[in-house]
C-alpha cells in the first residue's frame, strides 16, 4: 500500500507529466481513428523511406511530418520558456518578429525592390546572419522596455507585435519576395533523410541546454524569476538577466523566421508566423511550466510544441480545417490553465485533505 | 498638501497631449491633402463610419483595462458576430432576431471569460487569448467562405446599412455643381450613444466608480467592502457585450462575414485606449480619451489612404510608434511619481 | 464589563505552524484613550491586531466589545467593521486614483433618484467631515495628489465616519515627517476627546510618550504588562520590551574579539546616508571585530547596514574598504569587495524558495564568479555538503527545495551561502530571529569564531543579550540616526539607556 502511494506521488511530481500525458492522449486518438477506419492501427507511427525527385531518399510518415511542421513553434518555445521564467510575462511579438526577420533576410538576398530572383544578391551567410541580427535587435528592444523601463511584458511586446510585420512588409516593398535558390531552400527542406527544420530545432535545443547547464545562466534565470529581490542581494543583476532572455527570444524568433521562409522560399510577410506566438505560449504552458515564472523545463516546452503540432495534424486528419483548429486549441488552453489556477488547486487540496482525514479517522 | 489646487496632473496632461496630437494630425492632413478633399467634413464623417465598431469595442476594452485587465478576444468575437449575422440572414432569419442572438452570445461569452478571470483568478491575457482562438475557430466552423449580406438576403439590414443620417451643415459643392451634404451611417449613431452612456456610467454609477477602485488597488477595494471578483467579472461581460454591439456596427459597414475579418482589431482597440490615456496598470483613463485614440488611428489610416502612394503598412507602424511613445511617457510619469513619494 | 471599557481581550492564544505566536494574552482598551501596543519583532503585536480585526482566527480566549453581549469573533475585516473596529495601516488601504470624497464613501455612496451616485451630496458631506476633523483638503481632488499623512488621515476619517468605537493605527507614522506626525497626533487627540478608543502601534518611543495614555507591552507572544504612561519611564519600557533576563546560555569567550580594535580598518564609512531611512552616519569596523547595531525596530539599524552593502544605494557620503575609497551601486559591487549580507526578511530577500538547498548555497559564490565560470556539479555538491555538515542543516538531502525546510534551517542555508563566498566583512541582520535556542547559540558561537579568523562582522539583533555576548562594540541607533557608540561597560542596562535616550525629558 505504502510503496504504491510513493510511486503515485513520484509520478504526480514528475515535471514532464502534463506534456507527456497530452502526447499519449493524442496518439491514442490517432490509433482509435485508424482502427475505426480499418487502417493499420499503428499507421500513425509508421516511418518509411521514400524516393523523391528533389531531395533524394527521405524519411516519410506522420510522425516525421509532425516533427517537421512543429519545428518553428518548438524553436520559438525555447526562447519563450526563458522569457516566461525570468519575467513572468510572455513575448507576444515573436510571430511578428519572425516575419520581419524572414523579410529582412529575403530582402538582403534578393536586393531591395526585387520581387523574385534565383540569383543571390549577397552571399547566403550574410542574408541569414542579417535575419538573425534583426531578431536580436527586436529582442533588445523588447528587453529594454521590460527590464529597464519596467513595462509589463505583454504591453511592451505589443509594440513590435503590431509594428514588426508591417516593417517587414515595408522592407519588401509590399511584395512577396521570392528567393528561388536551392541553397536558401535548404533550411526548409531535407538534410540527408531528415527534415532540416527538425535538425535545426535539435541543434538549437542542444546548444541552449548546454548553455544553461554549462554556464550558470539556467540557475540565474530561475533565481530571478522566483525571487528577484533575493537574487539581487545575492549579487545577480535581474535587469541584465531579463534583458538577456528577451534577446535570446528574439534570436530564436529570427531562426524560426528563416526556417519558415526557407520552406516556401519566399518572405510572405503577412502569413509567416501568424498566430505562432500563441502556439509558443501554449507550448510553454503545456510543457508544465508556470506562466507565473520561476522554474522551467526546456524539454517540456519542446514536447509541448510538438504535442500541439500533433494535435493540429490529428485534427486535419480528422477532417477539421486549418481555420477551425483554433477552437480545440482554445479548449485545451482553458483546461490547462484552469487546472493550474489557485482556486481549483485549493479545491483539490481540500478534497484530498478531507479524504486523508477520513482515512485516518 | 504639496499639490493642492494643482488640477493638471500627469493624466490630464496625457489626455491633452492626445487631443493636441489629433488636432495636429488632422490639421496636417488638411494642409497636405486639402486639394484631395481632406478638409471636407465628410472626411471626418468617414473616419467615424469606418471606425464605429472600433469605438464600441474600445469603450468596452477601456472598462476592462480600468480593472488592470485586458481583453484580446474582441477582434475574433467581432469576426464571429459578423459571420453569424451573415449566415443567419442568409438562412432567412430576420435582422432583429439575429441581433438578439448575437447580443446573447456576447453575454454568455463575457460571463465565461469574466468568471475565469474574476473567480478562477487566471491571467486575463491567457483567458482572452483562449477566447480569441475559440471565436476565430468558431467563425470558420460556422462557415469558411466569405458570406455577403446583399439586398436580396435581408432588405431590412441592407436598408439600415445604407441609411444616411444627414448633417445639416458643413457640406460642399462638388465639381459638377451639386451640393454634397455630409452624412454618417446609423452605426455611428449607435457608437456615439455607447460612448456617451459608458462615459456617464463610468462617472456617475456605483459600478463605474468601483471599476476605478478595483484598478487603483484591488486589495484596498476589497477591504472597503467591494466585491472585487464580481466587479471584474462584470467588466468582462460589459466588454463582450459592447464588442457584440460593435460587431453589429462593424457588420453594417462591411456587410459581410469572413474568417479573416477584424484581424488585429484588438490591438487597434488597445492602442487607442493607451493613446487615449488609459493606464494598462489600471485605475486611470476614460472613454473620452479612448475616443480620441480611435480618431488618431483613423486619421492616420485616412491620411495614408488619401496619399495613395504610401505603403499600406504605414498605419500599423505609426500606431505602434505612437503606442511606444505613450507607454514610455506613462512609465516616466510613474517613475517620477514613485520618486516624489519616496522623498 | 468594567465601566468605560470598550474592548477587552482575555487569554488570547494563537499558534502558527511550529510557532506559538500568542499565549494567553490580555488586552483592555478604554473609551477615550490612546493605548500604545509595544513589542519587538515577533512579540505578537501584529498577530494580536489581526485577531482583533478578524484576519487571524485565534484558538483560545474571548474578545468582548462594549454594547455587544457575548464574545465577539470576527472572520473578516468587514465583520470587524460591523462591530466597530476599524484599522488604518502604514500602507494606506485606499484607492489613490479616486477623489478624497470617493474614498470616504465608496461602497456606500448616497444615490440620486435616477440611481446614479449623488456626487454633490457626498462631496458636501465629505467636506464637512474633513473640516470637522481639522483636515484641510479639497475633497474633489484625487487622493494621490496629497501627502501620505493626509492619505492616512483620510483613511482615519473613513473609519471614524463608519462609527468605529475602536480605531487601530498600525505603524501609521513610519513614513511621515515630524510636521505630519504632529498633525496626525492632533487628529488622534481630537478623536480621543470624542470618546474613540485608539490602539496605537509604533516603533518610536518619543511618539508613545507624546500622545499615549497607556502602554501594553508584549514579548515573545506573552503579555508583559499594562502601564499608565506616567508610571513607565523609557528605560523600563525598553527593558519590558527586550526582556531583562539573560538567557541561560554559556558565556562565549571573546577575548580575541575584544582586542580587535587595534587591528587595521576593514570598513570606514563617513557621512553615509539613504534618503528617508537613515541619516548620515560614520562607522569604523576593524578586521576581526564584531560590531553590533543596537536600536529598536525601525530605528534605521537595518537601513544603515543596507546602505553600506548597496542594497539601498547610499545617497551621500564615502565608504572606504581596507583604506581604499570605493563606490557601491548594487550588491554585486559590495560582494566583489568581499562583503556579504544576510538580510532580515528571510522570505522576501533571502531564500529562493523553489530552488534546492544546494543551489541556494552556491548562488552568491556563483554570482561572484560570474556566469561563464560555472562551478562544476561535483564542486557544487562538495560545497553544499560541506556547509550542510558544518552548520548542521537538517535537510533530507541537498536537493530538497529550500521552502520545505524549517525557518531555522533556511537561515542556516542562507548563512552557508555567504560563508561559501569567504567574505572579509559579513553583515548579519537578525540572523537568529524565529530560531530555536540551540541554533541561536550555535550561530552566536560561529560569529565569534569567524571574527577570530580575522573576518569583520556587523551584527544586528533585537536581543541585546545576544549582542552583548558577541560584540566588542555597539553603535546605537535611534529614529534613523546613529546617536553614539558604546565600547566600555557593555551591559544590558547601559545599552537600553542608550537606546531609550532622552531620559531627562520624561
Key words describing this protein structure:
heterotrimer, B: 343 residues, mainly alpha, ABC transporter involved in vitamin B12 uptake, BtuC, two-stranded antiparallel sheet, two-stranded antiparallel ribbon, globular, C: 506 residues, alpha/beta, Rossmann fold, six-stranded mixed β-sheet, 18 helices, 19 strands, 24% strand
Question: Brief description of this entry?
Answer:
The complex is a heterotrimer of chains A (361), B (343) and C (506). With 361 residues, chain A is mostly helical.
How would you describe the overall organization of this protein?
- The complex is a heterotrimer of chains A (361), B (343) and C (506).
- Chain A is mainly alpha-helical and 361 residues long.
- Chain A has one domain (14-48, 55-319).
- Chain A is built from 16 helices and seven strands.
- By secondary structure, chain B is mainly alpha-helical.
- Chain B has a single domain (41-332), classed as ABC transporter involved in vitamin B12 uptake, BtuC.
- Helix content of chain B is 71%, strand content 3%.
- Chain B has 13 helices and six strands.
- Mean pLDDT of chain B is 88; it is low at 1-7.
- Chain C is an alpha/beta fold and 506 residues long.
- Chain C folds into three domains: 5-242, Rossmann fold, CATH 3.40.50.300; 257-338 and 424-438 and 452-500, Rossmann fold (3-Layer(aba) Sandwich); 350-422, no CATH class.
- Chain C has a six-stranded mixed sheet, sandwiched between helices.
- In chain C, a hairpin with a 2-residue loop joins strand 8 and strand 9 (222-228).
- The model of chain C is unreliable at 245-249 (pLDDT under 50).
- The chains are: A mainly alpha (361), B mainly alpha (343), C alpha/beta (506).
- Chains in contact: A-B, A-C, B-C.
- The interface between A and B is large, with 44 and 45 residues.
